Amino acid sequence: TAGQAGALDEILGDMAGPAPMYRLLQGDVGSGKTVVAMLAMLAAAGAGHQALLLAPTEVLACQHAAKLEALLEGLPLMARARLSATLLTASTKNKKDVVRDIAAGRHRLLVGTHSLLYVPHFASLGLVVIDEQHKF
Question: What does the buried/exposed string (b/e) look like for 71-84 if buried means 16 or more CB atoms within 10 Å of the residue's CB?
């Protein structure tokens, strides 16, 4: 929609600038906020940085990872070959391997729950998206 395009243009403009971006993307349920955030994540990953999306529940994190993978399907093959959505939640089986690969920069698009907050090192973190309200 025009609203999504305008929001994405503003976000990408901020991301291209020298100052850190702090932004609230607000809209009705189903208005496309998550897609805008995911497109910003793709831009960050395309620039060589890592981007992470924090979801409040494992169910929502899994849904977001699937949606991000679907967005990747629309990319040209060369771009798609370098990117995939990596899911990290409390129930991730090979968590130590995933955390090691995040630190090494092998994963650029990260989706998960607050488990991502406990990753001790990111290779090049460029964007953090917090989806929905989180309670700790």
Answer: bbeeeeeeeeeebe
- For 22-67, what is each residue's pLDDT tens digit? 888 888 888 888 999 999 999 999 889 999 999 999 999 999 999 9
Distances 3 to 14, 16, 53, 68, 133 between C-alpha atoms, Å? 17, 20, 21, 20, 22
Whether 71 is covered by a domain: the verdict is yes
For residue 94, how many other CB atoms are within 10 A of its CB? 10
Task: Confirm if 44 and 127 have CB atoms less than 8 A apart.
Answer: yes
The CATH number linked to 18 is: 3.40.50.300
> What's the CA gap between 66 and 89, in Å, rounded?
14
Residues 6 or more apart whose Cβ sits within 8 Å of residue 96? none
